[in-house]
């Protein structure tokens, strides 16, 4: 009786996992090979002072999110699926009046961000990008630009 119950439980787990993976593949297109998928939401905020507009262009290997222009304090967000065994990377370029050119930053990288946030927030400043920390409730993890303006 115990063996039959164990087999039934294993079959049930298999069916549930298959259904979840099918939903993920349907929602995103082609990620059914991922294990433990997590939906992430990324918000990018214009933190420039002086009433400056921020031009943002974000993309990954698979998705180009297009160019956005954010007014002072404005934000935009995007959603995506990621996974413990995947290598999701979204990188963005930023430009604003007087910036001296284009600045780049890896806005989301599984290697660093997978466990940090489900609702990720990034504040763009002239010196770089600051990540919101849930523990402190502040944008206190700041990073300089990936490469200086070109």
Automatic annotation (TrEMBL):
A Pfam family: Self-incomp_S1
InterPro entries: Self-incomp_S1
UniProt GO cellular component terms: extracellular region
Any one biological process term the GO annotation gives: rejection of self pollen
Record keyword Secreted present: yes
Compartments where found: Secreted
Alphabetically ordered keywords of this record: Secreted, Self-incompatibility, Signal
Record's signal peptide: 1-19
PANTHER family: PTHR31232, S-PROTEIN HOMOLOG 29-RELATED
Family from the record: Belongs to the plant self-incompatibility (S1) protein family.
Name under which the protein is recorded: S-protein homolog
Source organism: Linum trigynum
């Amino acid at each position: 009786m115990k063996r039959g119950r164990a087999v039934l439980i294993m079959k049930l787990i298999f069916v549930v996992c298959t259904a979840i993976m099918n939903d993920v593949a349907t929602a995103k297109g082609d990620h059914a090979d991922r294990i433990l998928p997590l939906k992430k939401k990324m918000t990018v905020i214009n933190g420039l002072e002086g009433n400056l507009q921020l031009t943002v262009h974000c993309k990954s290997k698979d998705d180009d999110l297009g160019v956005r222009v954010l007014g002072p304090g404005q934000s935009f967000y995007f959603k995506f699926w990621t996974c413990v065994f995947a290598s999701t990377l979204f990188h963005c370029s930023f430009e604003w009046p007087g910036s001296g050119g284009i600045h780049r930053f890896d806005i989301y990288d599984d290697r660093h961000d997978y466990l940090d946030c489900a609702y990720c927030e990034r504040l763009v400043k002239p010196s770089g990008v600051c990540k919101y920390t849930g523990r402190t409730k502040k944008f206190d993890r700041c990073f300089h630009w990936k490469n200086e303006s070109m």
